[in-house]
Please model this.
Amino acid sequence: MTRKDDYYNRAKQQGYRARSAYKLRQLDDEAGLLAEGEIVVDLGAAPGGWMQVAAERVGAEGTVVGVDRQRIRELEDVAATVEYVRGDITEDRTKDAIREAVGAGMEKRPVDVVVSDMAPNMTGEYDLDHARSVHLAQQAFEVARDVLAAGGDFVVKVFDGRDLDALEAEIDEEFEYVRQMRPDASRKESSELYLVARNRLTAPVRTGDELEVDIVDTGTEGDGIARVEGFTVFVPGTQPGETVIIEIEDVKPNFAFGTVQR
Ligand SMILES: C[S@@+](CC[C@H](N)C(=O)[O-])C[C@H]1O[C@@H](n2cnc3c(N)ncnc32)[C@H](O)[C@@H]1O
Model:
């Protein structure tokens, strides 16, 4: 029996609408993306296999918002809150409907995880299919930037090709790190892979920035603390009252580390 048959049959037996459900299961098992009570936005969600997996994993306190230009048949027997947005992700009104479904607005970004399994209609022409998949991934990234909370995660499918590195670098700017994952359930002959971006950064500083700061406080470990637009930057070896020039060494969702430049 081929691997394809294996996942297809397992999906049938276990009540998943699509064999692709196993891709999200495997991504989550390896990376630990989904947790109970979380809000998940699933882009390109029809027929609903990933939604079933996400709903299982976020549980009764969680919410799953499925988005697709095709109709998604209502999920049955799920404890999570489930919402459906029908529309094309490249259109503003679809993005507005997502924002509304999750209660995002102004500075409020309530979503824990954005996943996208969107794929373009395939032409068989490798470069064209790649370019279209990168375009869809960028649209998904736009949604993620719009609704994802600080510390949130983003998973996006893309076909391998020449623009992959640039896309990955663009996403990497906004997250603590990004890795490429190829779940076993992806067909062997497929060029698809998933970019898994962890810990969305909303910090006003980035690694490598050089800036002058006032040390205003001391942390529990004795490091000096500067605030940049209200964001905490730990600066080892400094005391309140000092003004120093620092280089940002490491950025986390809720704080960063800087070192004094001599
Ligand atoms: C591979 S399927 C997703 C399968 C899904 N993850 C599951 O487990 O059931 C890709 C989906 O992306 C959707 N899609 C592609 N382009 C889209 C777009 N521009 N806007 C919204 N959905 C799109 C397609 O309609 C299709 O349902």
